Amino acid sequence: FGRVARKHFEAQNLTSVPALLPLPLQRLQGELGHASGLLVFRLLRGVDDTDVAATGLAKTMSNEDSLNDCSSLAAFATKVRPLIAHLLQRVSDDYRLHGRLPQSYRLSVMTSEHWYPNRTGRQVSFPTAAFHEGVDRCCEELLEQSVMLLGKMVSQPFRLRLVNVAVSNFTGDKTPTRLLTSFLRSQQPGENGAELIKEEDEESPNT
Questions:
Q1: Are strands 104-113 and 171-172 parallel, antiparallel or unpaired?
Q2: Nearest alpha carbon to residue 153 among 75, 73, 65, 56
Q3: How far apart are CA 127 and CA 118, in angstroms?
Q4: What is the distance between the terminal CA atoms of the chain, rounded to a whole angstrom?
């Protein structure tokens, strides 16, 4: 509402959804105008056909799961592996669509110590080279990194309540293969639609 309309409704104690909901469409349009009155009438009933505006690409991707019984490195590895695999699938999909990769990988855990939760995290560089070797190879690399990071965050004995894996700091991939692919895709035919022709060097005839 505008300032004048707001004061007008406040004077009539129409300051909440339950108070406005019984008002007929004709009255709302009379108070707010045809378009605004119809919009408020529909919003009061949970109807909104407004197009969803894109907010840009994700800056961070993460997976999280609560743990019932995780008190060893072996149990942790079993629990965190599927989280990493699913996260990498999302990274792979994003890479295919937008040609970017994360630069950081972060592991966060919540432990139960002294009867109160304590959440902590550590991060390392994302293994870009391993990713280009394959998602499975990258998953194994991140699994090893996760076990190493956990060892720095907790001491034996420990009991984990929650684990979170995340990637962030996305940038365009600068590997030679990706750069060549991007260059070739950017090339367009000439103004007359002529195709690029591979020319062979010819030796000059002897005189």
A1: unpaired
A2: 73
A3: 28
A4: 89
